[in-house]
Amino acid sequence: MREMFKGGMTGDNWLLFNEWYKNLESSVMWKSIKSKPVNKFQGVRQGGVWSPTAYKVFINTLLKMFEMNGLGAHLGSIYCGIPTVADDVTLISNNQYEMQAMLNVLSDYANKHRYIISSQKSCTLQYGSKTEHLFTLNGQPLQNSIKATHLGIDHDVNSKYGVKDCVPSRIQTVYALMGAGLHGLNGLNPKISMHLVKMYVLPRLLYGLDSIRLSVSDMKLLSVYYTKLLKQIQHLPERTATSAVYLLLGQIPVEAELHKRMLNFFGNIIRNHGSVERDVAIRQLAVMPRDSNSWFVKIIDLTEQYGLIPSPHDHINVPPVKIEWKILQEKLSLNIEGST
């Protein structure tokens, strides 16, 4: 409530949330039995609509503190030292002493607000470092790891793109549906199965992959798996031509589906004026050579691959509104279906 007031929320708006958070209680449901209520004196309401925004208001002071003091990584003149989504905080620095200073500031802020950041649930990834450095949080050593998962994406220090083996773990999410009839022989109708694939499988399979560059092996594994899945729900033999598998269901390849999501993500970035992501996009499109591994260079390749005009550089200067971007996505779908 103090952070809300410091952020400019006053008067009746502040009083509304102050009353909303009074006398909170929580219960535990176990095997249809409800426990006695327990009083809650801190934290956001579990499952509340306002809760994610409330936590952002709470954590924003810490993020501003890092930015104002310039602690953390910069991409050119753009500060990107502490990318954060809700309570998932990542500290980035190319200097070991600066990184330890950031950890100290983080723990001091948490202690000041009477909560503890667990050193057991945190780890460090050290890219391109010949010597392994030891970092501490609250006086406890942090585990040095070669792999960690953040926002559903596996980051690996030994990978060319910073991520590795993203696809195998995603594929496991579909196998639970097989027992429910997601197969062609004596299972659900292929049309219904395809609806389940589009509503459940694809979002889980491609979540977060539109923000990174997949390796060739990961993309091949993804395509092989998706084609095999579509053959299975139609009960088609293994030797069936790939083009026929997609045409019978009226679908596009999973690689093209991922490309659509990448372009849609790019559209969200360039329409968000004043954001760090848009500043990064402008810089990367201006300075990155065409043979680099930049995600934004991949976007340029996609616009050329599908014959989309204008180019990302033009979109940056004059961002299309959502309806124009939707028309561009429809054009992309037509180009994909034509090539298929």
Automatic annotation (TrEMBL):
This is Reverse transcriptase domain-containing protein. Pfam families: RVT_1 (PF00078). Residues 1-142 form the Reverse transcriptase domain. It comes from the Eukaryota. The lineage of its organism: Eukaryota, Metazoa, Spiralia, Lophotrochozoa, Mollusca. PROSITE patterns: RT_POL (PS50878).
